[in-house]
Amino acid sequence: MDQLSALFATTGVLPAALVIGVLLLVVLLPALRRLVFGAEPRHALRVLLSPWEREALAALRTAVPPDWHVCPQVRVGDFLSVIGGSEQARSAAHRRIRQRSVDFLVIDAESRPRLVIELDDSSHRQPNRRRRDAENDAAYRQAGLPVRHIQPGRRPDWLSMIAAVMTQAPPPGPPADTGA
């Protein structure tokens, strides 16, 4: 054994073998991981709006006043907060709705939400989706925010819909500039 140790020490084979082993491990480990676990997930862009949503957005943009905006695909938690009740009840109510989104949110010149528009495709006929829509609608009503559900194939009178919202007082809420 002493002869073997002396051979490694004088020839440098052991340090070289360790360096080569570490390099092979560094190079082969990602390939081995891909082989065992599959390829790493990647992010890719996707189209945000369906053709029906793009058509509705174009029509809505012509119906709102120049200083109002139509915002597509807005998370409910970004415009609706939960107030009152116990901390536990508020947290539960917020968790139920925060990640849901609306097809369109119409906001006024002060960035106050004025109207939710949902384009109800066939998925909205499923029982679990109907319950979710009813829960969402109840939350919008509590906040004083009108919601309109549009069925496929219908050509709504966007101008009348927006004009009706413009004649109503904005829903109660925090001042436009919350400092957030």
UniProtKB/TrEMBL annotation:
Domain DUF2726 positions: 47-152
InterPro entries: DUF2726
Ranges where the record places region Disordered: 118-139
Keyword Membrane: yes
Pfam families in the record: DUF2726
UniProt entry keywords in alphabetical sequence: Membrane, Transmembrane, Transmembrane helix
Species annotation: Azospirillum oleiclasticum
Name assigned to this protein: DUF2726 domain-containing protein
